[in-house]
Specification:
By secondary structure, the protein is of the alpha+beta class. An 8-stranded mixed β-sheet has the order 2-3-4-1-5-8-7-6, sandwiched between helices. It has helices at about 15-25, 80-90, 125-130, and strands at about 5-10, 30-35, 40-45, 55-60, 70-75, 95, 105-110, 120-125. The radius of gyration is 15 Å and the shape is globular. It has 3 helices and 8 strands. Strand 7 and strand 8 form a beta hairpin.
Length: about 140
């Protein structure tokens, strides 16, 4: 089965300013905010615009991402199988375990391995469950 788009993540320097901007651009309500202090992340998820989730990502930690960089997050049926499939194609995938405030395991392809784009592999339904509090 082909993977489908789960969500788009956009790195921002100023989360409050970005929320105001994207709320106007998208034409939507306030986003759902989630903080992940162990990863030094603050996340804003727009979920009510009638399409896939749009996530704004602000970090105080070390990252290769900068203002406006995008994460393409793909929904996968079987994370282990996809990590193995990528590996057999010569693509290095980092397996990120769940954390206390981000309780879902994901796979990551860095900018260096992802044609200058971050690719995130997300188990089917896991991100929406996390965002809505069902996880």
């Amino acid at each position: 089965m082909a993977n489908k788009l789960d969500h788009i993540g956009i790195f921002v320097d100023d989360l409050d300013a970005a929320i105001a901007f994207y709320r106007t651009v998208i034409g939507t309500k306030d986003p759902i905010i989630r903080e992940v202090p162990e990863l030094k992340l603050k996340l804003a998820f727009f979920t009510d615009q009638g399409g896939e989730i749009i996530e704004l990502v602000s970090t105080t930690g070390k990252t290769e991402m900068g203002q406006g960089d995008v994460v393409v997050a793909l929904e996968v049926e079987d994370l282990d199988a996809e990590i193995a499939r990528y590996g057999s194609a010569g693509i290095k995938v980092h397996d990120q375990p769940p954390t206390e405030n981000l309780p879902l395991r994901r796979g990551w392809v860095t900018k260096g391995g992802g044609m200058n784009t971050i690719i995130e592999l997300c188990p089917k339904g896991a991100v929406r469950a996390f965002v809505t509090g069902a996880a």
